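call fold(seq) -> tokens
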Amino acid sequence: MSRDARLDLGVLRGMLLSELSEIEDQRLPQSFPPYFLFKMNIVNYLLRDYAPLDRRLRAVAKLQADVPRFLKELREMTDPRLPDTFYEMAEMAASGMLDAYSRELPEYLQRASAAVRVRVGRTNETATSDLKALVHDLTTTYKPRVKGEFALGRRKYERMIFAEHLAQIPLDRLSEVGQTDLRSNQAAFHEAARRLDASKKPQEVLERIEQDHPTEDGLIEDTRKMLEEIRGYLIDHDIVSVPSEERAKVIETPRFYRFATAAMNPPGSFEKVAKDAFYYVTPTEESWTPEKKEEWLRHLNYTSLRNISVHECYPGHYVHFLHRMRIRSAALRSYTSYAFTEGWAHYCEWMMVEAGFGDARLKLAMLQDALLRDCRYLSSIGMHTAGWSWEDATRFFMENAYLDRLPAEREAKRGTWDPGYLNYTLGKLMIRKLREDWQTAHPKEGLKDFHDTLLALGAPPLGLAREHLLGPDAGPAL
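ret:
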């Protein structure tokens, strides 16, 4: 079997093992309603011009016609007792979907033909009513019966790690590497803050950085200009190929997704018509007080926004997407490893600072985000294999990533239903080790050569990527 065929076969194996982990070990179809609820998402029908608007809205009507049956089957399948954090996420997802149906969709209907407005108006009324009933059921039936148990346990957790990476990484080794990275980043964070202003505590230095932020009217346009600056740096400094003149479109985050600060929404891997990629940036809300608007814009200060844009666009998710679209193998284009995808984007934050992009403030913001991801990594292991509660993880985020209570709690709770969120840091560290070993084996090749070679694989399990690039005797992945 050729190397390329082994890579394709390995990717398909990883895909199946990951799905088995979600279905059998994590039991997401029974325990996590958003597993199905997100399949009711209509945002791509609305945003993507793959067909005339009337045709896309008729497709929405077809989807909505199945909502009553879909929600009936969801109720029948869902466990009667959900972990408390799973319930909270289900309520948020159902409410967000309801918001998309009741607020986003009517805006598009105004531009549709009369016949389509009538048809979609009818299906939307029924779907909206059923979603409201689900939100009510979640509150009245599921909320009183929530439970605190959610942990996978050691054996299932290790199976999840193997499925994601196709590499054996002992749990003790995982923990050791995470602790080491946390300590290293904490030391670097304090040193970076000291270099900016030795007379102030790190949090005070960050507060000063937050004062330099966009206005609410200028947020989207400032982000567009920032992307051009970062893209130019990549090209001028031969960091990675940018294989297209197309640009990600910066838009306000759709309402149903505004729990996120920013996000990349690329087209499907095989899309040939509506090929736009959307970079969501979450704006202020009209209903907010001036104080709350200011707080949000300080959160999206220019330094943090630059680091986020490195992760989401250049050279993170968007550049990765552009490379994936050039791959011929259907298997490689179909599968996206969590660790490869988020690990690459998180690696890019570190790598761009290492490559001289930005100033001392960007380094501090990058390290702040690295501490957040380190705490995700260790909290995931702690909550699913070592008996931590999400309250324990909340304190861990507060003490080690220096978060306030509310964002720390949000991060901790996410780890109960998304144990794979350790893959931001785990993927980054595996890519850094792969880069070091690859450059040792290819001393005449530069950084751009490594990046282009890695991204040409798509997003396979990182253990498989390592074996493909370095051979079967490549050594440990971590």
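The mean pLDDT is 94.
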